Amino acid sequence: MTGAFSRISRLSYSAVRRGFASSSARPVVPEHNRITVGFVAKTFAVCSVTAVGISAALPDDLSLGLAPSGADAFNLIENGMHPPHLGWEHREWNKTFDHESIRRGYQVYREICAACHSMSLLSWRNLVGVSHSEDEVKAMAAEYEYQDGPNDQGEYFQRPGKLSDRLPSAYPNEEAARAANGGAYPPDLSCIVKARHGEEDYIFSLLLGYSDPPPGISLRDGLHFNRYFPGGAISMARALYDEVVDYEDGTPNNASQLAKDVTTFLSWASYPEHDDRKLTGMRAITLSVLLTVLSVWYKRFKWAPIKSRQIVFKLPKAREV
Known about the structure:
Domain Cytochrome c: 100-252
CATH architecture of the largest domain: Orthogonal Bundle
CATH topology of the largest domain: Cytochrome Bc1 Complex, Chain D, domain 2
CATH class of the largest domain: Mainly Alpha
Shape: elongated
Distance between the termini: 83 Å
Catalytic activity: a quinol + 2 Fe(III)-[cytochrome c](out) = a quinone + 2 Fe(II)-[cytochrome c](out) + 2 H(+)(out)
Keywords: Electron transport, Heme, Iron, Membrane, Metal-binding, Mitochondrion, Mitochondrion inner membrane, Respiratory chain, Transmembrane, Transmembrane helix, Transport
Structural class: mainly alpha
Number of strands: 4
Radius of gyration: 33 Å
Strand order of the largest sheet: 1-2
Protein name: quinol--cytochrome-c reductase
GO molecular function: heme binding; metal ion binding; quinol-cytochrome-c reductase activity
Number of domains: 2
CATH superfamily of the largest domain: Cytochrome c-like domain
């Protein structure tokens, strides 16, 4: 056994020596090959910068709207009906949020959704420059009372809201929310679009997907049938109807428009960096294109003549003695 191991070791050592010898005997890479490798490396670097710009411009949650198939298909009993893919304008690579729709969506949230749902991650200052002016947001925040303190006497007091405060919640805690809603807990809507499969399509379809239960299905008291909700039974009753909210700008206030606007508002709340991300991506792509053009020009008019230049040494003639 020991002899076999020693023979294997000698053979391995010989193979390694031959490998090192062959690698050291390889010819040096020619000059034109090194130039090609350098050009490929530069091209790869430019493509990498462009890819970073594209990844910054496009949302990381880009939905292709592909219909489910096979094991990924939605089942009504387990996961609810798959929502149809809708053409949200802000999902296009060169489009931003419709800020007028965000303003209307906030109005729908304030008058309808805020009665049960909170947005604990959103501050009043986040609305400034997006859907409202600073004076408008200050006036809206001042309509609510916030507990602050302690003061110099060690007592807590109530004060009007200010820009740094979070949007108020309908309930002080989860237990109070469940007690007021028959045991169901209304989820926080700060990141609801990001947290749901289908994102805007799911939220929009859920808000309008109420109907009578199909024959043979009975729901207990306090539940409502919604074909897009997992299991089909949801505790939240339908909240959006035609003309339930009067828009300040006179936009038609049918149920579909209300659902579209509040979904846009919730999408902005989930992706507040959306517009800045696309702008940064466009700048990165533009910069990479300019750098590519500059590098091509520099190589063509600066280095091409230098690399193709031939230097000839002319030896002087020998003097005759």
